[in-house]
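Record 1 of the preview.
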Amino acid sequence: MDITSSHKYSGKTTGQIVLEVVRSAIRRRMILDAVTSFYIFRTDNQQVLAKGVMGYDAAKDKSNEIRKRYGLKWDQVSFKSEKGRSAQSVGTGNKKSRRGVEYARNFNPSKGRRFSGYYDKQGNWADLD
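->
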């Protein structure tokens, strides 16, 4: 199926289609930035100064505030998105599979995989490692 034969793009020029796709990608990125959790750190010693700041603009404002408070230069303070921590996943530490086994965020280096276990009917934790 050709992209120009789709009903959504019928009667539009290639330039208009490209512009619409780019605008859609920008909107998607803005939404993702609004619900992404960021952490702020010093670039010279990698010290984390703040965690869990929601949204790109809030992280930018908070990093500027921290920079001014501690008298740091512009290139000494930066921020990055916290991997795996968005508005939907904040507060959930473990992931579940279909069988009820939970896998922790922490990696078990001696086993070569994540810590795993499950809760029994009484609510007790059973370790599978």
